[in-house]
Amino acid sequence: MKKNTLAHLLLLTSVAFFTACSNKTPEVVKPKLTALDIMGIDVSTGLKCTPSISIDDLPLAQTYPVLENTTSTPSIVTRQRQVRGCVIDIRQPRQQVNTSNIVNNVEWSAKELLGRKYVWGATGPRTYDCSGFTQKIYRDAGIKIPRVSRDQAKVGQYISYRNLKKGDMVFFDTKKRRSGKVTHVGIYLGNGNFIHASSGAKKIVIYNFNQKSYYKKRFLWGRRVIHSTTRLASL
Predict the structure, then answer these.
(1) For residue 99, with 0-12 CB atoms within 10 Å meaning exposed, 13-18 middle and 19 or more buried, which class applies?
(2) Which member of 8, 21, 86, 196 is catalytic?
(3) Active site residue 21
(4) What is the reported pTM?
(5) Is 184 an annotated catalytic residue?
C-alpha cells in the first residue's frame, strides 16, 4: 500500500513539474544591434558587407588567349564605404573603366622611375630588374600581374607589333642565340617608344623601336592587360 501511495505521489509531482515547464512564457531574445544598424544602413537592400579588397585578393590579369580578339571580362569593384574594417559594397550596374586614365597613370608612374638602377632580381624601391619594374607599375595602377617576364607574357590579350597601344607590355628574346622564349619585358608608350629596366644601360630608360633596331628584331609580342572591363583593386 505504501509503495502504491509513493508511486502516485511521484507521478503527480512529475505531471505538475512538466505542466509548469510547458506553461512558461518563452524568453524573448532581443537582436543585437550592429554598427550598420546604428548607422541606419539596411543590409537587406542591396548592400553587402565584405572584407576589404586588396591587390593580392585579385586574380591575375586575365586571361591566357592565343588570338588577339580574345579578351576577358572580369568584374569591376563597386563603390565602397569602409565601416570599422569592413567594406560595404554599394552594388551598382556594371560601369566601363576609363582606360585612358589608367594608361596615363601607367605612363606617368613609369617615367617617374627613369634613371633608377637596374639590378637583376630587384623589385624596388631604389633598384629594379625588367619584370620587377613592370610588376610595380601595373600594381600601382591596381592590376595584378606575375613576377617574372615569362609569366607576365602569358596574361592579358595577345597583341602583335602593329597593334601595340600605349600601356601594353612588350616582350623580347634577348639571348645571343634566339630561342623564341621571353627573356625581357618593357612597357609601350606609343609612337615607337617603350620604357624598360635595361641590363645593358644598367638603368630604366626609354628607347625607340626605330632607333634601336636590335629590340625591333628581338620583339616577340605584346600583351594588353588594361581593358574597359579590367578589375581594379581598391588601393
Answers:
(1) middle
(2) 196
(3) no
(4) 0.63
(5) yes
Tell me the torsion sign for CA atoms 71, 167, 179, 183: negative
Helix (H) or strand (E) holding 172: strand 169-172
49 has catalytic annotation? no
Among residues 8, 21, 86, 184, the one annotated as catalytic is 184
The cell for 87 is: 567594406
634566339: which residue's cell? 178
184: left (phi over 0), alpha (psi -120 to 50) or beta: beta
Task: Indicate the DSSP class of residue 54.
Answer: -
Strands 117-118 and 127-128: parallel
DSSP 43: G
Q: Nearest to residue 232, comparing CAs of 125, 107, 101?
A: 101
Q: What is the mean pLDDT of each run of 10 residues along the chain (235 residues)?
A: 54 48 49 53 49 58 40 39 44 61 96 98 96 97 95 96 97 94 97 97 97 96 85 46
* Nearest alpha-carbon partner for 161 in 222, 206, 209: 222
- Contacts of residue 229, defined as CB under 8 A and 6 or more positions apart, other chains included, come to 71, 72, 73, 74, 76, 94, 96, 97
On whether the CB atoms of residues 214 and 148 are closer than 8 A, the answer is: no
